[in-house]
Every structure is written in structure tokens, then in C-alpha cells.
Amino acid sequence: MFIHVSKQGADTNAGTEEAPFLTIGRAAEQALPGETVVVHEGVYREWVKPPRGGFNDSRRITYKAAEGEHVVIKGSEVVDGWESDGDLWRVAIPNSLFGDDNPFAKVVEGDWLVRPDKGDPQMHLGQVYIDGVALPEYPTVDALRNHPSQTLVVDDWTGVEEGTRPFIGGWTAEVGEDKTVVHAHFGDVDPSAGTVEVNVRRSVFFPERHHVDYITVRGFELAHAASPWAPPTADQPGLIGPNWAKGWIIEDNIIHDAKCSAISLGKEINTGHNFATTRRDKPGYQYQLESVFKARHLGWSKERIGSHIVRRNHIYDCGQNGIVGHLGCVFSVVEANHIHDIALMRQFYGHEIAGIKLHAAIDVRIEGNNVHDCSLGLWLDWQTQGTRVTRNVFHDNSRDTFIEVSHGPYLVDHNVFASRVSLENFSQGGAFVGNLFLGAIRQEPVVDRATPYHEPHSTEVAGYAIIVGGDDRFIGNIFGDGSDRPTYDVELPGLATVGYGTVVYDGFPANPEAYFAQTESRSGDHRRFATLPQAVTIRDNCYLGGARPYASETGAVLLERDAVVVDTRADGVVELRVNTSHLPHLRGDVDTNDLGMVRFTGASFEQPDGTPISFSRDRDGDPSHKLGPRVVGPVPSLGQGPWVHEIWTPKEAL
């Protein structure tokens, strides 16, 4: 059965094609498992809160834009009546417009948010848009009127100096008991000749209660949400998300301008909500550890939570994350999304910012995404286990990928990492196969935090341990020397190493026997024992220019600096150019048996259903290409160069 919604409808209608509803929310009240809500052309300004979901994957509730029609759902409202105030404009908005939740009265705050403690002014969840462009917030009217270039808040870990933003306009707000007065500078635009919108609603498509399962959201433009800061120790509402449920499909949407996070596969609020900030009695790390055990008591399992699909969405212009999730993202698939311009307004900073930021990504597959122009591309943090990151392209980010305090097994294969920092590995138990790393590699143990690991393919906690580093595999990758990128310049702790290539693993033993010989001789010295690096397997990698191999590597090949180049064309196509006929062949097989078992978790590199991993298709998904004689790197089936290959095209996502 189909339920129809149209801007020419009425909520007193029957919801048929001939007599459609006016609002999507009214249709949601009527939709039952197995039914589809078809929304017709127009801009709908509402927060859709589905009261129920489907029964299972074959009887879900689907919300979709009508075929060939542009449907926009916004969390903002148009604001008219602007009055000139010198070089500024001014409008008084009745607080009744915001209901009980005025975003201009709420600051960006919560656990792991860094900058307010350093004296920077707090930003608010409100936002002002002129003709669809978000303007930066200024702390006072005087600051806005004088409009000096704003100092940008940047990621502390990159070593990049803080810069400034040239003036593009801006806003500030004064919240009173009955009204909110917004002062704005719109550059050269007269607001009466353009469209000015302000954030009103926290979310655009997000249930108010948990366990609203098996919903599909397809083909919409979703925008302008006052979504709050979403750390792993808090409730994590986004512009759109399932709110602790199972089996959602979010596909073929254009999603943009979330104040913090766009798509949330986040956690349950009863497992903790910013307690490190509000109670100030324990660190956020401890509360995050507690949240894992609380979630188990609340039914965190494959049977009840996760198994979402997020695919072919175009996500951009968000303040914190394109996709975020702690605990609720388990057993999910994130594929073929185009994610860019995340956290580039840089008005607030915390340790939870990335194009994709997932905690507890158990058995999650991240495949075929193009992530670029982000503060950080992909951040997998805590409990990265059974996770596969495959066939993605990362470029023009401050940093491409960060894997933190996880024990594995996790597999990173056939990706392109083309930014100034390719990989920061603060974990152990990973396998890196057939990737292209053109930027710096940073390897660092974490011996002051013990994090959980799980029974294979389960949320059941099996134990917890610190990260001593190692137990990694690097096979058949290509490493660049970063010569055409800014220097990775950040002060490192004593145990960290950074460089180009696998040289950062020098000092790690090349076989488990050597590791256990060291531990046996030092078993009485627990402090030294805890920091002994584990064995690594590193073979058959290729190094360009000044990139250097692991000292004990077998089969390493060094080539000219420009042998492999990544280019982004004006039409958005990302190309890989191989300029040499001397790419080495990978020797031997790479499969579940070859990768072995991860030491701490006692688990193998295998599919989520427990079957072996087999690289029977290359980066382009060619099932006819069998692993055998092939060149190293992300596109093995093309063989020796010279050649140019499109590794990501806009047709893969909206």
C-alpha cells in the first residue's frame, strides 16, 4: 500500500494519490509495516518522527521521494522582516517559532570538546543561512560589526598552524524571554532579495523513541538540523538516524548542513550522557568503558541493534561528522557515499571529528566511499573488530585514517590514501593489504588506557587490554614519501614513530617466537613487559622515492617517486596513474589462513558469517580476477603500467 504526501494536500485527507496528506509526519502516523510513504515535489519544513517501524527486512516501512521529483526536508524556517542596522541587518524572532528547544540558546558542549576550556567563545547550535550558505557565528555584535578575519579552530594533532578565514558575513544572536534577536551581515546580499533561513529543529528524520526498526529513507534532500555535539559518551542525535534500532536503510539522499552530525548510528542515552562534563568526577574514558557494559544490560546485541545500510548518499557541510556512531553502528554497511567538507567551518574542536567517526565498529563494512576535504577522513575508535575498510578513496583531508585503541582483527584493503597523513595506527591486530599510502604513517602504542575486545562476531565482551602495538600485517601495499605534501609536523610521545613506509615498525620483531622470547625474559618486570611491541608480518610492499621499508621486510621493491600518482579531475573523478612497468608482483596468497589469528582477541580475519576472507575480486569488484600473479596496490587486475584508471566516479554516489 502507498501513502502519498504533497504540498497541495491536507492532513485531513485520506493520504491517497488523489487526496494526499500535507505533512510527512501525518503519513508516518498512518504507515504500517510493509507500506510505502511517497512524498511529492516540494520543501517540507518538519521533523519526521516515525512512531513505528517494520517487522523485518521484508516488511519494512519505506519513505521515498516520488520518482523524478525533488523533495527537500529541512529543519529550518525562512525568516523575513530584516531591518537595516548600519552595515548589519537585524530581525526579532518570536521564541514560539522554536518551540521548547531554541538552538540559539544552546551551546555546543559535551564530553571530549576541547576548545571552550582554552578560552575560545562557545558556539551555539543555531545557524543562519543566506541562499543556502551557512554563515559563521561571532560572539558579539561589536565583533560582527568590526568583522576581523576569524581565527580558525584546527585539529591539534596535525601540527598545522592556526589560520584565519576571510570575512564572508556572519551572525550573532541575543536570546530573550520572548524573542531571539539575530544580527547578521550578509556580505553583498540584501536579505530581502535572497532567502534567509535559521535552524529551528534538532533533527530532520529521527524517531523520538528506541527500537523503531526496519525503516528505509530514500531519495530526499535533508538539510539544516541543529544537531548537538555527539561524543561516544553522550546521546548521539543526528540530522537523520535510527535512534538505537535495527535494520535501517538510508540511501540515495543528499544530506547537508547539520550543525554537528548528519547521519547518526549512535548509542542509547541511558548508557550515559556527558557525565565527564556534568559530573566531573571521572574521565570520559572511564564513562565510555562503563557505557559498553551498560549497553549489554540494555540489550546491545546483533538481534536487537545495528545491521544498518548507509549507501550512495552525498553528505557535506557538517560541523562534526558526516556519519557518527557508538555501539549502534554494529554489523552495518557504509558504502558508496560521497562525503566532503566536514568540520571545515572550524568554529569548535573536539576529539570526535571526522567524515566517518565510529566507535565499536564490530563487523562493519566500509566500502567504496569517497571521503575528501575533511578535517579527518575516517576515525575508527575502540573495539574495531571484524571491521573491513575496502575500496575507499581518501584525498585532500588533513588526515585520512585514524584507527585508535582497538585490538582487531580488522582488515584495510585496496584503498587509496592520498592526503598528507595516510594512516595513524594507535591499535594492534590489523591487516593492511593492497593499499596505496601516499602520505605519512604514524604508529603509536597506547599503554595508559585498556579497551574492550569481544567474542568473534558478537557484542559479548571477552576482555580488555592496553595497546602495546604490532600484531599487524602489511602485504602488497604501495607507499609514497609525501614529497608533494606539507610536512607532518607534530610533537610525538616517546613511544611513537612517524615516517613514510613501514620503516615506522623498525624495532618490532618479525616473528612471534622472537616476541615471546622477549616476554619470557622480562616476565617479572610488568611495566617493561606491558610495552614490548608484538610481532609484525611485513612483506612484498613497494616504496616510492624516499619511502622506506621495515628493516626485516622480505620482497620490498623501491621505485621512482612519480611511479604512482593520484589526480582529482574537475568533474570529480579520481584517477590513479601508474607511470611504470616495474610494479612488483605479490608473491603467494593472501587469505584468512595467510593472515593468521590476532593475538589478544584470538580471532581470525574472516567474513562476518565466519567464512574465510578471499580476495577473489579486485578493487573494481571484478569477480573473474582470482588472486594469483598480480601487481601490488589497490588495482591488481590492471597489472603493469603505464595506465590511467578511474578509481572513483560521481556515478557511484549522488
Task: Characterize this entry briefly.
The protein is mainly beta and 654 residues long.
Q: Key terms for this structure?
A:
globular; 654 residues; 7 helices; 13-stranded parallel β-sheet; single chain; mainly beta
SSE map:
Layout (H helix, E strand, L loop, with lengths): L1 E4 L18 H7 L5 E4 L2 E4 L15 E5 L5 E4 L1 E3 L4 E3 L2 E7 L33 E3 L2 E2 L6 H6 L3 E2 L12 E2 L4 E6 L3 E7 L10 E4 L15 E4 L2 E5 L23 E3 L2 E5 L2 E4 L10 H4 L5 H14 L11 E3 L2 E5 L2 E6 L6 E3 L2 E5 L11 E6 L5 E3 L2 E5 L3 E4 L5 E4 L2 E3 L5 E4 L5 E4 L2 E2 L3 E6 L3 E4 L2 E2 L2 E4 L2 E9 L6 E7 L5 E3 L2 E2 L17 E3 L12 H10 L4 H5 L6 E3 L2 E3 L12 E3 L4 E5 L5 E5 L13 H4 L47 E6 L6
Parallel strand pairs: 1-2, 2-4, 3-5, 4-16, 5-17, 16-18, 17-19, 18-21, 19-22, 20-23, 21-24, 22-25, 23-26, 24-27, 25-28, 26-29, 27-30, 28-31, 29-32, 30-33, 31-34, 32-35, 33-36, 34-37, 35-38, 36-41, 37-42, 41-44, 42-45, 45-46
Antiparallel strand pairs: 6-15, 7-8, 8-14, 9-10, 9-15, 11-12, 13-14, 38-43, 39-40, 47-48, 48-49
Could you characterize the architecture of this molecule?
The chain has about 650 residues and is mainly β. It has 7 helices and 49 strands. The chain has a 13-stranded parallel beta sheet with strand order 1-2-4-16-18-21-24-27-30-33-36-41-44, covered by helices on one side. Strands 3-5-17-19-22-25-28-31-34-37-42-45-46 form a 13-stranded parallel beta sheet, with no helix packed on it.
